[in-house]
Design a protein that fits this description.
This protein is mainly alpha-helical. Helix content is about 85%, strand content about 0%.
Length: about 425
């Protein structure tokens, strides 16, 4: 009796789907990498651009980041609401990346503070919503293909870190050898490639439930109100903690390049080297964290990372040489690898609602943090210098640790586990 051969037939049926899934994951990775490269250039040069090319002082630099954050909060939430009502999230991905491309092109020639401010607030604010849309797509893709969300999301996030390994050194090399114009032109090209990949190289996912508000004019307001009322109290504590840590991180990003070049009188290329070293260390850490977090407890890991952040910011003002600053990128990478990957997964698990809206709620902590960071950095740097900024960062991270302690005390040691997440959603 001849044995049946269902395995070969099954493999024949599964192979196209597996290949399609692999191609999609590859396109996701390339799109995330291109976006990360462009954003790493912006992230490490904006303060220098405002100070050197636009001629802004500490106060106006702080005002720029604060104003952009105010606009960014509304843009991010509006895009999250809008994207959950689109039949195809790829449209939102392409639109947000295209806004960044347009903003980078304007930065190649604009040197007037008002023009730079408006471009950063509107176009780059819309571009920053790409992050929440990408991770909303990542979650929906993982759900549709049966992948585990936490490790897959961490793997995509590690690609962002890979972009930060290459982007800052290359960007600062272009800056020192070719100027701001060509550097931002290169960023625009990367964002244009991100548009193409996001719109035409990612597949449309199965249709998801879309809310249909009875009152169309008040739809966005009622959807946002409904979302906010369903957020569990412990999730608000997590969001508050993440916001405090992000304020510290944004203050660091605003101040570090000016601190190194103006206070320590070291080369601007050191900023790129530090950012690249930190990002290179983040990649294996993110992958490891994504695999182990469910077993250890996500919020436990986040709490440990916040304590490490306090230590990092306490040591940073004491480091006055290039070797010491580079060595400090080890603890810096350790806490960033956790904070930038795990809290979003916890929020997505705990808060019911559309994936785009929930992701936008979490991502709104970044413009809120940028708002506060811009204001605080501008005041502190003008009054006490850039070194004092890092002591304020340490205080903010200590506040974040206190908020997490309250959360863990209220919910117990297994906080952040899938079981508790389902309980909170119920």
């Amino acid at each position: 009796m001849k044995p049946a051969r269902p395995t070969a037939a099954g493999n024949a049926e599964r192979t196209p789907g597996a290949r399609r899934s692999t191609r999609t994951a590859s396109s996701l990775g390339i799109a995330a990498g291109c976006y990360a490269l462009a954003m790493s250039v912006f992230g490490t040069t904006l303060s220098l651009f405002l100070a050197d090319a636009v001629g802004a002082g500490p106060g106006r630099i702080g005002l720029y980041f604060t104003g952009c954050a105010v606009v960014g909060i509304g843009i991010n939430l509006a895009m999250g609401w809008f994207s959950d009502r689109l039949s195809d999230r790829r449209t939102a991905l392409a639109a947000t990346a295209m806004a960044g491309c347009a903003g980078a092109l304007i930065f190649t020639g604009a040197r007037d503070y008002a023009v730079v401010f408006a471009t950063g607030a509107v176009l780059l604010g819309l571009n920053e919503a790409y992050i929440s849309q990408l991770f909303a797509y990542v979650k929906e893709f993982a759900d549709a293909t049966g992948r585990e969300v936490t490790p897959f999301s961490s793997a995509v996030r590690s690609i962002f870190s890979a972009g930060w390994v290459i982007g800052p050194p290359v960007g600062l090399y272009l800056l020192t050898h070719a100027g701001f114009g060509r550097m931002y032109a290169a960023a625009a090209a990367l964002l244009l490639l991100t548009v193409v990949l996001g719109r035409w190289f990612l597949p449309a996912l199965p249709a998801r439930p879309r809310p249909e508000p009875k009152d169309e004019s008040g739809g966005r307001r009622s959807a946002l109100h409904s979302l906010l009322t369903t957020v569990p109290p412990r999730t608000w504590l997590l969001l508050g903690s993440v916001t405090a840590v992000n304020v510290a991180n944004q203050m660091y990003l605003i101040a570090i390049s000016l601190y190194i070049t103006r206070d320590l009188h070291l080369s601007a290329s050191l900023v790129g080297l530090m950012a690249g070293a930190c990002a290179a260390l983040e990649i294996p850490l993110m992958i490891t964290v994504g695999r182990l977090a469910d077993r250890v407890g996500k919020v436990r890991v986040v709490a440990a990372a916040v304590v490490l952040a306090v230590l990092f910011f306490c040591l940073l003002p004491m480091a006055g040489s290039a070797p010491a600053l580079i060595a400090l990128q080890v603890p810096n990478a350790m806490w960033i690898a956790v904070i930038t990957s795990l809290p979003m997964v916890v929020v997505q698990q705990e808060v019911p609602g559309g994936t785009g809206t929930v992701s936008a709620l979490y991502s709104s902590t970044f413009p809120v943090a940028q708002l506060l960071a811009g204001a605080i950095t501008g005041v502190v740097a003008a009054q006490a210098g850039y070194r004092s900024v890092f002591w304020i960062c340490a205080v903010l991270c200590a506040l974040a640790a206190v908020l997490l302690l309250f959360r863990m005390a209220a919910r117990g040691a297994n906080d952040g586990s899938p079981a508790n997440s389902q309980e909170a959603a119920a």
